[in-house]
Amino acid sequence: MRQHVLTQRERLLLTGNEAIARGAYEAGVKVATGYPGTPSTEILEALARTEDVYVEWSTNEKVAMDVALGASLGGVRALCTMKHVGLNVAADTFMTASYTGVGGGLVVVSADDPGMHSSQNEQDNRYYAKFAAVPLLEPSDSSEAKEFTRLAFEVSERFDVPVLLRITTRIAHTRGLVELGPRQEPASMGYVRDPRKYVMLPAYAQKRHPVVLSRLSRLQEFAASPEFLRWELRDRAVGVITSGVCYHYVREVLPEASVLKLGMTYPLPLEQIRAFAREVERLFVVEELEPFLEEMLKAEGLAVEGKAFFPRQGELSPDLVREGFVRVGVLLPAESRAMSEVPTTPRPPVLCPGCPHIVPFLALRRLGAVVCGDIGCYTLAALEPLQAMDTCVAMGSSIGMAVGLAKAGSAPGPVVAAIGDSTFIHAGIPALVDAVYKQADITVLILNNGTTAMTGGQPHPGTGLTIRGGQTKALDLVALCRAAGVEHVHVVDPYDIAATFVAIEEAIHHQGVAVVITNRPCVEAPVKIRDNPFIVVPQKCIACQLCMNLGCPSISWSVETYEGRPKVVIDPATCTGCTVCAQICPTDAIQLFPSPRAVPGEKAGQSRG
Amino acid sequence: MGEVRNLLIVGVGGQGVVLASDIVAAVCLRHGYDVKKSEVHGMAQRGGVVYSHLRYGPNVHSPLIERGRADALLALEWSEALRWLPYLRPGGVLVVDMVRSIPPIALRDRMTWKSAYPPMDVDQVRALQVEVCACNAGQLAEELGNRKVANTILLGILSNLLEFSQEEWEEALSAVVPPHTVDINLQAFRLGRSVHAERFTAGGIPVDLPPTYGVPRRFRVEIVEAWCKGCGICVRLCPEECLRLDSRERAKVGDPGRCTGCQICQLLCPDFAIAVHEEQVEEASIRG
Ligand SMILES: Cc1ncc(C[n+]2csc(CCOP(=O)(O)OP(=O)(O)O)c2C)c(N)n1
Prior knowledge:
The complex is a heterodimer. Chain A is an alpha/beta fold. By secondary structure, chain B is of the alpha/beta class. A six-stranded mixed beta sheet of chain B has the order 2-3-1-4-5-6, with helices on both faces. Chain B has a two-stranded antiparallel sheet with strand order 7-12. The termini of chain B are far apart. The relative contact order of chain B is 0.12. Chains A and B meet through strand 8, helix 10, helix 13 and strand 21 of A and helix 1, strand 2, helix 2, strand 5 and helix 9 of B. Strand 8 (174-179) of chain A pairs antiparallel with strand 2 (34-38) of chain B.
């Protein structure tokens, strides 16, 4: 954590993300862009700790891709990072960038999330490389992540093509040893005016498509170069073609098998694959998610087996690879090593103590609103106990979906779109303009916590800060909504329960589009906010459980009871002093901790039952 | 391939799981081993489960440990120890802080008031052929003056089970923790390393659990319609959302089955229009 990731020349234990940043740095990258998204976020954060690189959090992935492409055409090396679903947003530019080709090397990182550790789907972005006819690199660990990133810039320039570097959560967030090298400083190629290559009018684009296709066959030969292809002939009875982290699972589970490890998985080095197939008796493909390699190899007439034994959904693991080979009959069923399970409590993610998103959703629930939600920390309001969200699909979808639902005329309550500040700026603005244009009768709730909290607290245009903490212009959300034509725009403090209820109720009653902006900084990022904690006066608590309905993790049951119901206690070590539970308590039992912070009693930090 | 050792460190967001595994990784590196460690960031940090798989040896392939193959499980919280137990190999060691972090979802049963938090029964785990080192690291850390070093105390206990020397541990620790906390972390580590078996709690440790009732109770909410003016206070504040306003703006009982008898409606009704009565069901049996 505290290593100086990008300065010394030695071997360091880096995450895949830090290694990618290092690889780009060593390749002399000049411009790096992206939009935060787990598991890709730390790449730009690591690059922002270096000098000599322009790094930006862009408004969204499409903008990030445009900025990176522009920089590339300007003759310098450019990196663009995002999570898998971000590439859907950026796909418009990405697909045609394959036609324009590049100036300086352009590397696009897609961080996929098999198993959906923190995503709304688990799409397999390897298909994007095939779709756009660009090369696809898949590192298997941190060391390769650095090396492949460095090489990706060379491939990009040599073949005049954007390169897709695809990682997964497991690669992004695993630390492994990485040998550092020096930074190259490739001279800028300068900007070369070339409208036939960069202005994709039909007439020019028609000339570029054949270039794209012939490039593909040259890339196919290149896929066999030793940097990307590894033959490991051992026992010939079983051969495995694999890539990415699955390579290591296969080596772990079947150390004796022959392996053909692919570093470039599109286009495929078919000749070498055929040669490998001839060496082994039975050929398997082990890959996470879709049968991407398997289908291409079967289309080439190769007798490979894969998804019949290994799951097509979720993240693979050494356990699942072992189970697959047991089903194949190559491995004996492992003697049951795992011990029996002992039941334990579930522990889903929750909104933090003091989270400013709690009260607005409490209001929406009590007002019987139909809530089109969006993506961010506040999506957790869909879970117990708030359960105040009806939909959540993709970044920015809330407002458009609310318009559609209102137009359908079937909603059983007032229709509200609830969207975070970063998400609103990412993709909500065009939808708000549309809602006004269509005169939809909806309420838009912008949950402005001054950060992109879900991904760890990155700045966005509304914060007026850059990725390195520098000052820049801040977007004025109220002026923006007014400019879009919204007549009813109210700003409220979500820590004030009564004011928030009133503001939302008024907005709901307003005919047409109404906007409520809840202004209150996130308590965790960019700075931790801790006010004096509150305590429960046990003599006054009637154990009504109203405060428990907030879902605040600082509040739990005490050992004392009132008429058979457990009273509550507040953990002073985690209470942020937001005052919300004190406002809601009908018997005034929740009061300021008598002495200021730093005296969290003998059992602080430990929720008592 | 040489022997690869597997260590799983688990806990709840904010407890220092990742820092603890950074320290172990640094020790392994100093010793000349290959290391991989894997954790998931993001959504999990919002009060959820945090884990770190750590594997070291001459040459490590998979970043993930297979179930039933962890040599040791270091748990910074009791219920997390139970969640990850199936990763431990038979005869493996569990080092656990007997501290509870009760998630809100475990306290949702308002009929029987049963907590979903598992009992802190060390013997139940020992019965599964697990060697258990359980201690109140949180409390020991507080006695040292900083609750946050509980994880370092546990590392001290763990260090007795691994092959590295005290010097290697202390060098790694000093290099990884924030500089102004080196001293207290060294104290915590040494305390953990010297904790004797007797200080491990033998049975379930005495903890105060929330009361648990066996039989749900039933209540009836009586509303005198003539006195109700439809202000809606009871509707807004009923914790169980039992009440609603009908088409004539009068308070009505929607779902009486959810009433817990808290009587907020009765207390707050400005018109004294509400009374809550307990219905006679079988005797509520109370367990401690
Ligand atoms: C297209 C796309 N890009 C990025 C993400 C990752 N992501 C999830 S939530 C979120 C932003 C949340 O910020 P905000 O809307 O301000 O809500 P907060 O978490 O601060 O409450 C991001 C970037 C995503 N899911 N989809």
